[in-house]
């Protein structure tokens, strides 16, 4: 039964990984502001996860917030989490880390570090999430999933080989899951952002040097100079786009990789 307001998430449950910072925190805030009844927030940064503020009580009817601090690449922790998870309506497969190195020179250790979180972690999240979306006392429940890929998984960008490969793989994983689950009433899409102003950039050596020389704002502006929009997106802009894909307003959209990059890939 379609809702009069397709952005009404009242009565629904959502799981978000990487929820303590950046895009994931933005999605948690967006869902809270759109009336979600139960949020399951997962991140390995326990302090940031506990400190995350969602919305003031007057703008949100949010019922339950569950915060679980663990590494999304840990299958044992996912098995424990799944045992008590119950049914879900929405999943955002979002936790990720940056990583650099050319295909000729990147070490196997760095390759595995990036794949561990960005691919294995996404696989474990997606599988757990899909089973919870199907769970409703044996009846078909339906729901929607968004996987955070990257424009670097669509357009080859030199120097971040393992990251780009992992992001291409998770976008394809979303498309396979979309094909497998459409008959269950489950939609699965990927979002492929260009630069977004979040903490993920802080670990990059070039970015650290630019921040030391020019300050963070100028460093971000410099990095955005090759993007037609001339600026990075904000985490809240990304949250709105992910929220749209999760919502009933996107009822006919599944298996899409939505590029949101200010024109970077043009
Ligand atoms: P962020 O660093 O602000 O947030 C990432 C969150 O994921 C952090 O809270 C971190 O603690 C958590 N996390 C990392 N590894 C984890 C693990 N193994 N287990 C549990 N939690 C873990 O960065 P962000 O930009 O918000 O990143 C969110 C997603 O967006 C990532 O998948 C990233 O690759 C993707 N992305 C970001 C950009 C960008 O420019 N910021 C562009 C394209 C794609």
From TrEMBL:
It holds the Pfam family adh_short_C2. InterPro entries: KR_dom, NAD(P)-bd_dom_sf, Sc_DH/Rdtase_CS, SDR_fam. Residues 12-194 form the Ketoreductase domain. One of its GO terms (molecular function) is oxidoreductase activity. Keywords: Oxidoreductase. PANTHER family: 5-KETO-D-GLUCONATE 5-REDUCTASE, ALCOHOL DEHYDROGENASE, PUTATIVE (AFU_ORTHOLOGUE AFUA_3G03445)-RELATED. Belongs to the short-chain dehydrogenases/reductases (SDR) family. This is SDR family oxidoreductase. It comes from Allopontixanthobacter confluentis.
């Amino acid at each position: 039964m379609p809702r009069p307001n397709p952005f009404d998430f009242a009565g629904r449950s959502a799981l978000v990984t990487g929820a303590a910072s950046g895009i994931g925190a933005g999605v948690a805030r967006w869902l809270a502001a759109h009336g979600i009844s139960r949020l399951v927030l997962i991140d390995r940064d326990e302090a940031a996860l506990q400190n995350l503020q969602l919305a003031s009580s007057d703008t949100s009817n949010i019922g339950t917030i569950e915060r679980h601090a663990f590494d999304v690449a840990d299958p044992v922790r996912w098995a424990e989490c799944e045992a008590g998870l119950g049914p879900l309506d929405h999943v955002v497969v979002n936790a990720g880390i940056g990583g650099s190195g050319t295909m000729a020179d990147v070490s196997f250790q760095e390759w595995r570090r990036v794949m561990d979180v960005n691919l294995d972690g996404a696989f474990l999240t997606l599988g757990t999430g899909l089973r919870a979306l199907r769970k409703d006392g044996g009846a078909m429940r339906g729901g929607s999933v968004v996987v955070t890929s990257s424009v670097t998984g669509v357009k080859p960008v030199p120097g971040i080989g393992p990251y780009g490969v992992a992001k291409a793989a998770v976008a394809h994983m979303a498309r396979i899951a979309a094909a497998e689950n459409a008959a269950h009433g489950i939609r699965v899409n990927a979002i492929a952002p260009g630069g977004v102003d979040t903490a993920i950039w802080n670990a990059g050596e070039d970015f650290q040097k630019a921040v030391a020389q020019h300050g963070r704002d100028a460093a971000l502006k410099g990095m955005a100079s090759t993007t037609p929009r001339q600026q990075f997106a904000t985490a809240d802009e990304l949250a709105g786009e992910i929220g749209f894909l999760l919502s009933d307003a996107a009822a006919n959209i599944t298996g899409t990789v939505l590029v949101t990059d200010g024109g970077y890939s043009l």
